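Predict structure. Chain length: 216.
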Amino acid sequence: MAALIAERPEVVIEAASHDAVREFAKPLLEQGIPVIILSGGALCDDALRARLEAAAAKHKALLYVPSGGIGGLDALKAACLAGADSVEIAVTKPPAAWKGIAYVEKMNLDLDHLTGPVTLFEGTARAGVPHFPANVNIAAALAMAGIGFDRTQLKVVADPALVYNTHYINIRGKTGAISIKFESVPFPDNPKTAMLACYSALAAFKQFNSPVRYGT
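Prediction complete.
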């Protein structure tokens, strides 16, 4: 960490884990170094998020969580300003994406031989996000941009019929209803995440110092 700080990077992109966010984000922000966090699910911890937000404000360093494998957060923010009644996200992926996750392993599912969709979790983003640290960071981004972890509803599904990581977002409120579907190609070396999430990080970096921005 000391060596990294000594280099005075223009920005640091975290793409490692929730543990990495907990360990490294605050020291970087305290040195005035902007941090782009891809493992946004770590910020489900309100105390951690408050510490990072305070460090970012005090040291004038950007703390940025990109949209990852989804979009529409600009519309969500606008809807929330008017008043959003409900925000829901369904994260559905092929069974291979859910392998090696302790929460799923406790279900004793044979992920290689599912015959239909299986719901792995359904409830609040607050309760669900920590169970899937590498799979549902998009739900955290949605919650933080919108009505929060306790009011955002999350459904997690393993579906053997899928080829793409497929996500559904539904927003209802005073501005009307928004329904969005994403069919994202899984990253070849890591089916837990989508190629779109990787390019989201690159897009965030590309616009980092841009004086002009369109949407979020």
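Summary: The chain has two domains: 1-65, 73-191.
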